[in-house]
Amino acid sequence: xxxxxxxVASTPAVGxxxxxxxxxxxxxxxxxxxxxxxxxLFVKNFVIFQFTMLLVYAIAIMALNILTGGSGQFSLGQxxxxxxxxxxxxxxxxxxxxxxxxxxxxxxxxxFAFGFLFGLPALRLSGVYLALATFALATATPQLLKxxxxxxxxxxxxxxxxxxxxxxxxxxxxxxxxxxxxxxAVGLVIYTASVNLLHSRTGRAMMAIRDNQIAASAxxxxxxxxxxxxxxxxxxxxxxxxxxxxxxxxxxxxxGYNIQLAIAIFLGMVVGGVGWLPGSLAGAAFIVFxxxxxxxxxxxxxxxxxxxxxxxVIFVLxxxxxxxxxxxxxxxxxxxxx
Length: 338
Known about the structure:
The N and C termini lie far apart (46 Å). Helix content is 73%, strand content 1%. The protein has one domain. Residues 1-20 have low confidence and may be disordered. The chain has a two-stranded antiparallel sheet with strand order 1-2. The chain has helices at 3-9, 16-21, 26-38, 45-71, 78-95, 100-119, 128-145, 151-154, 175-199, 201-211, 213-218, 223-249, 259-272, 279-297, 302-316, 321-337; strands at 160-161, 251-252. It is an all-alpha fold. Helix 4 runs parallel beside helix 9, helix 4 crosses helix 10 (201-211) and helix 9 runs antiparallel to helix 12.
């Protein structure tokens, strides 16, 4: 066995234990699912709307986690793919009268192609340079959406208004509740696909690249293919999140997809735990609810309060929500023994 083979063989992240560490136990998954199913039954429509946006951001964070936690590539440009997915859904619904359900796979395909093509020139970059390139993409996207050549479809600076869909088959539920359950179903499909991806040969190749590119290349892993594929898959899932966000909010405008959104998605991944897919929910909850908490503490200094809360979370939980889950798992095992 060569030195490169020994390196990859001894790397735990490529083994079954590492793939398991990116998910949560079956019992934990069932508990989370039950809580998410019953949550909208006890709250008002506005809170249901917030829960739905939490799920939308969780999908976007999970997509970034596949790119960063799975293949080790940093991106600050997820807002660009989110915007592309949102505008794809909005334009199809507004101009072509396409059913909102059918806009999701179209948004995924469009964003996959865009992300894959962007990943090709990005192959020459890594680390902070790749982050800067994606940052430039996120910064340029809102300005590109305002160009007059696209105004006929995108609405330019004014944006587009979308009609919120009703519950199908005459189901006795509000529009907000239906969109919550619809978004939850889409999120579960993407989560399952993400877990299966990381358990597959493609996922193992991505994680091998993340851990040691030289060793992975020596073992025959096509670095260019799998790195661009990771970009494409991440962009596709982010595009679905953007399309869902447009349908839920009923409005798209260029200024709604600025660099702050990209930073929020990246922040959600860090808070949830880099490389831990279930942490996407915790990261999304942080970026949805903590700004409101900060504003309730001090409206004039809400940004400062948010920064202090973020610093506290980083110092107390450097591995994010994943660290909390590990503490709970140890505590439950101790209780079960006693």
